[in-house]
Amino acid sequence: MKLVTYNVNGIKARLPRLLEYLTEQQPDIVCLQEIKSSDDSFPHADIEALGYGAVWHGQKGFNGVAVLARGQVPVERQRGLAGEAEDEHSRYLECEVDGLVVASIYLPNGNPQPGPKFDYKLRWMERLATHARTLLDAEVPTVLMGDYNVIPNDDDTFSVRAMASDALMQPESRAAYRRLLAQGWTDALRTRHPTGGVWTFWDYQAGAWQRDAGFRIDHLLLSPQAADRLVDAGVDKDYRGRDKASDHAPTWVRLT
């Protein structure tokens, strides 16, 4: 089965690209981020017409996550993370599909740093880690996938110098990501491409796509039970080059 994480950067603007991807690739499960749509304006009918059930956690104008499953409606387990009652951002949605637990994650960007946005990012990562431990304890095949807004290693970016002051690559961001992995999660893309140099995001500015000046911030983390089923992982890079595409490319893992 093919599981995909895809930051669409506005589902209304990218709907033709999303429907195109679903039609051509027919993934089994897709986690969307940054849908930038309120719950009542999510284009579920267009998605359902292609045979996909959907659950979504929207927010007008920004954020927003969704889970799609081919041939069925995902069973919602949780939306949002505990630990900060005043946090109303739509950034986490957890569902079950055929005995597999999947979460769509849109982690805070954190820029500019230092500052309150970066502090919020680090708090959110700690809240995610707390919940992730409970998921591991359940010993159920689980995949935490999404836009983590973290560049984990120097070889996950086209230029360490260009990204040095960005919140995505600060030591605190990287340390929080490593602590999450240390719980027992497997970074699927890194496992299949251990030498780095695989990008999932190319900015719209400064000809980043044309120069292949990208970096890796979309990750699929596997619990031990899911990691045992790992076949392959990669990036459907060509979709980033299509007309009016998202600045992210669909990033995927195949499990038996």
Automatic annotation (TrEMBL):
Known EC number(s)? 3.1.11.2
| Cofactor(s) this protein requires | Mg(2+)
- UniProt domain Endonuclease/exonuclease/phosphatase: residue ranges: 4-248
Q: What molecular functions are annotated in GO for this chain?
A: double-stranded DNA 3'-5' DNA exonuclease activity
Q: Which CDD domains does the UniProt entry name for this protein?
A: ExoIII-like_AP-endo
- Name the UniProt key words of this record, in alphabetical order: Hydrolase, Magnesium, Metal-binding
Q: Which Pfam families match?
A: Exo_endo_phos
Q: Which PANTHER family match?
A: EXODEOXYRIBONUCLEASE III
Q: Which family does it belong to?
A: Belongs to the DNA repair enzymes AP/ExoA family.
* Protein's UniProt name: Exodeoxyribonuclease III
Organism encoding this protein: Sphingomonas kyungheensis
Origin organism lineage: Bacteria, Pseudomonadati, Pseudomonadota, Alphaproteobacteria, Sphingomonadales
